[in-house]
Design brief:
Blueprint lengths: L3 E3 L2 E5 L5 E5 L4 E3 L7 E5 L6 E5 L10 H19 L2 E2 L1 E7 L10 E2 L6 E5 L4 E6 L3 E6 L14 E6 L5 E6 L3 E6 L5 E6 L8 E10 L10 E2 L5 E2 L12 H6 L23 H4 L3 H7 L10 E9 L4 E5 L3 E6 L11 E6 L6 E7 L7 E8 L2 H4 L4 H48 L8 H11 L4 H58 L10 H47 L5 H8 L4 H10 L7 H4 L4 H11 L5 H13 L11 H24 L3 E2 L3 E4 L4 E9 L9 E8 L5 E8 L2 E2 L2 E2 L3 E8 L4 E7 L4 E7 L5 E7 L8 E2 L9 E3 L4 E4 L8 E7 L11 E6 L4 E6 L3
Helix pairs in contact: 6-8, 6-15, 7-11, 8-9, 9-10, 9-11, 9-14, 9-15
Length: 846
């Protein structure tokens, strides 16, 4: 049958050769021997309809024109389906120097990366295009005969707020984005021959049952599920009360002076306002049910566990026994809704012969009687406050030393001349006292005032004492006492929790321990107020003494014509305060008992006295009264350094007891030995907790063979978790073969998708997305004694090519799933070029 079309008719050939007529205007269709039509041709490159005029042909299924149109359309559809889509460039950075192995490391929530600059020996955190966010150097000079420490591994916190940096000196330093100073210092293998091998950092849910999952009662008295929006739900009142922060109503803690006080890393971390606010920020509402877990492995097989950034739970020996050599941790994986983590151990990081998959159970996360996030945040804040108090005490010590050092040198220069006098005073105190009362100055005093001290020396003396006392006053008033107030608030909260859970023995501390710490904090507060009062008195009396001293210098050095003018100034002097300063403050200040060095004998004697459990605050008050009245008293007990050291020691014991209680519940499951019969070149691990099998999560190691670069192995170890304890893993495996592809790198994107970086036969790079679960994947029970693993081909993958204008030969890849935690970010694929200086970020087009 032939058709004759009048008007706007569009004819298109479908995918399978069907003719389609579309009525686009008023048509008159008649059956005639010939027709005149317009055929629609879909351009394969642009996807735009092209109108092709055709002459009058006889058109039927057997006609050559029909076959030609059908073949042409089908061919172009097939080409369109076979042609990979192009990745979209998100950002690009050119590094100053070649990135070492394992670098750069990309942030999961921000478009940031970190790399180690071996030339500058600094850790460089940047955002594209090479915009510096921070540059951190190791603090302090290396010991004689040793190399400066360098970065060996880095790991981002899951929320992107911190960067954990493992240094070759065996210390993990946590660096915040707001400052390049190390916020926390976690010794792992410091002072040993071991090195940090791996840092794993994950966030886990605290509560197994969220209030959102519980039924609530509606206004009509009927029970309903929490399926409404958050705005319709009542708040979790017990949780809100538990996390109510009282110290937010207090004035903010002030940064310490920039002058150095101490040689350790804490000397500079508290000197910036941004650093102070970053360190002492309260937990956010979305973190109330979460706790951060950090696992740090060392190459001697040990493992250190930390919670909430810096609270050390303890160190564990290697859970894997394999000879020869001790396997150590090289990878870590966790799931935010599970308390069981997956650890991967090997005897070497480079091409190990086999791996050991070890489940690590942390039942304390869900079984703690106290909200673990609340408890851990209070403990780590207390740790930071104690570090802050320690640095404040060192600054106070420095200011006190500056106050006394220069005047002592001036007084020592005249003391020898006075002792040689045949008659008269033998010391500077009675000599100056004599001058104030009588106006007469002995010859050594006259020479000292006019020649040695003079106007310049007086200005130096005045500046040293006034600035030192004012700085000391500021440190006590703005830093020392406010930090002690916050310590008292935290300890009061911990004591209330201990009293509420007094029938539990798994919280790790007691009311007695907290009360003892509160007693020491009270002693420090008492000493702080005493220091503040004495500083104010000494500063007032010194101003009077300084005015009188300048008057005497001018009087003794002036001519007789200026004596009358000086006599008028003398009438304004406060002689009583001058005499009081000379008698009480000139050579021995009441402040010396708080800052001067204490002998080791007095230190040990007072420490032994306190270990008897006596009430510290009452004893200190009695000793201060004795000291003020001139009686013999305990020297060390009144010293600021002694009290700070004592509260630090007692707090460390509290932290140790709580860590031991937590450590006892940590359990390592049976290790699964994974082998493919050849050295392993690539590896990634993930815990998948899919909705299809929510009660049985899977540990999924992903490894590749050195010699067969077109295939990789996927292992699946399923465990049952009950009360935070996992069962023995049941492992299956499969081998996936890629046709005409050479695998460069592979990573898990999420629980459902693998990202494969491959090169084609023409050496062009391609990114393929492969499903973790597929009907084509044939898993077989894994037998560690046999290397026979079923091999399957995987076709029909989503493939993406690198745009021609950004062509590169990538050697390393990192991937991150889309996130909105700190701003909307799509799926990102990071690639490092073979020159190890080009770092590009691509996204997958929608």
């Amino acid at each position: 049958m032939h058709m004759h079309c009048m008007g706007g008719v569009r004819l298109s050939v479908g995918r399978f050769g069907q003719l389609q007529l579309q009525n686009t205007a008023n048509l008159t269709i008649q059956v005639t021997p010939s027709i005149s039509v317009h055929a629609v041709d879909l351009d394969a490159a642009t996807g735009v309809d092209t109108i092709l005029p055709l002459r009058s042909y006889g058109l039927c299924r057997e006609s050559p024109l029909f076959d030609s149109l059908r073949r042409r359309s089908v061919d172009r559809d097939n080409e369109r389906m076979a042609e990979p889509r192009r990745l979209a460039l998100h950002s690009e950075t050119e590094l100053e120097s070649r990135a070492p192995v394992g670098f750069p490391s990309s942030c999961p929530t921000l478009d940031l990366s970190a790399t180690w600059d071996a030339t500058d020996r600094s850790l460089f955190v940047f955002r594209p295009p090479r915009q510096a966010v921070s540059r951190s150097h190791q603090v302090g000079a290396p010991a004689p005969g040793t190399q400066p420490p360098q970065v060996v591994t880095v790991t981002w916190k899951p929320d992107g707020q911190f960067l954990a940096v493992g240094w070759s000196d065996g210390v993990v330093r946590l660096v915040g984005l707001e400052t390049n100073k190390a916020a926390h210092h976690i010794p792992v293998c410091e002072g040993t021959d071991a090195n940090i091998s791996c840092i794993g950092w994950a966030s886990c849910s605290v509560a197994s049952t969220s209030p959102r999952d519980l039924p609530i009662r509606s206004s009509h008295g009927l029970s309903r599920d929490r399926t409404a929006s958050d705005g319709d739900l009542p708040p979790n009142l017990p949780q809100e009360l538990a996390f109510l922060e009282v110290d937010t109503a207090l004035p903010k803690i002030s940064p310490l002076p920039t002058s150095s006080a101490g040689a350790d890393d804490d000397a500079t971390v508290f000197t910036l306002r941004t650093g102070i606010e970053f360190l002492f920020q309260p937990p956010r509402r979305e973190e109330y049910d979460q706790v951060n877990i950090m696992a740090v492995g060392t190459d001697d097989g040990k493992l250190q566990l930390n919670i909430y950034d810096s609270f050390v739970v303890g160190a564990f020996s290697s859970p894997v026994s394999d000879s020869p050599g001790t396997p150590y941790m090289i990878s870590h994986a966790a799931h935010p809704h599970l308390t069981t983590h997956a650890l991967v151990f090997a005897r070497t990081r480079t091409e190990p012969e086999h791996l050991h998959l070890v489940p690590m159970d942390l039942p304390f996360i869900s079984s703690s009687p106290i909200n673990l996030c609340l408890l851990a945040s209070k403990l780590t804040t207390l740790q930071k406050l104690l570090r802050y108090i320690r640095q404040t005490q060192l600054h106070m010590q420095v200011e006190w030393k500056n106050t006394r050092e220069l005047p002592t040198r001036f007084l020592r220069s005249v003391q020898g001349d006075l002792e040689e006098l045949p008659s008269g005073p033998r010391g500077i105190v009675p000599a100056l006292y004599h001058t104030v009362v009588t106006g007469h100055a002995y010859e050594p005093v006259r020479e000292w005032l006019v020649d040695s001290l003079a106007e310049r020396g007086h200005k130096r003396w005045d500046k040293a004492v006034v600035s030192g006392l004012e700085n000391l006053r500021s440190l006590v008033h703005e830093n020392f006492l406010p930090a002690l107030e916050r310590c008292a608030i935290i300890l009061s909260r911990l004591r209330g929790l201990a009293q509420f859970h007094d029938d539990r023995d798994d919280i790790g501390y007691s009311v007695t321990q907290i009360s003892r710490l509160l007693d020491i904090i009270g002693c420090l507060s008492l000493v702080g107020h005493k220091i503040l009062s004495n500083v104010m008195d000494e500063l007032e009396h010194f101003n009077a003494f300084s005015t009188w001293l300048r008057f005497q210098i001018d009087r003794l050095a002036s001519s007789s014509t200026a004596a009358d003018e000086l006599t008028e100034k003398e009438a304004t002097l406060d002689t009583s305060k001058v005499l009081t300063y000379i008698e009480r403050y000139l050579t021995s200040s009441p402040l010396h008992v708080y800052f001067d060095e204490v002998s080791q004998q007095d230190w040990r004697a007072d420490l032994a006295h306190l270990e008897d459990g006596v009430g510290l605050l009452s004893i200190l008050d009695a000793q201060l009264r004795k000291q003020e009245s001139g009686q013999a008293s305990r020297r060390a007990l009144q010293h600021v350094g002694f009290l700070v050291s004592y509260v630090t020691t007692c707090s460390n014991q509290l932290f140790k007891d709580m860590a031991e209680a937590t450590k006892r519940s940590v359990r390592f499951g049976r290790a699964v030995r994974l082998s493919i019969g050849q050295p392993i070149t690539l590896m990634d691990t993930r815990i998948c907790h899919t909705s299809k099998n929510a009660s049985r999560p899977n540990f999924r190691p992903l490894i590749q063979n050195r010699y067969k670069t077109n295939q990789f192995y996927l292992f699946r170890s399923g465990v049952d978790i009950k009360n935070g304890i996992s069962s023995n893993p049941q492992t299956t495996s499969t081998c996936i073969r890629l046709e005409d592809r050479k695998l460069v790198d592979l990573k898990f994107l999420n629980d459902e998708t693998l990202v494969l970086l491959c090169t084609q036969t023409d050496n062009n790079s391609i990114v393929a997305l492969a499903p973790v679960e597929s009907e084509h994947l044939k898993y077989k029970a894994y037998d560690s004694s046999s290397d026979e693993i079923p091999t399957v081909g995987l076709a029909g993958l989503q493939e993406f090519v690198i745009p021609t204008e950004y062509a590169m030969r990538p050697v390393r890849m990192e991937v991150h799933d889309k996130t909105d935690l700190r701003g909307e970010l799509p799926i990102r694929i990071y690639m490092l070029s073979s020159n190890r200086t080009t770092w590009r970020t691509f996204t997958i087009p929608q």
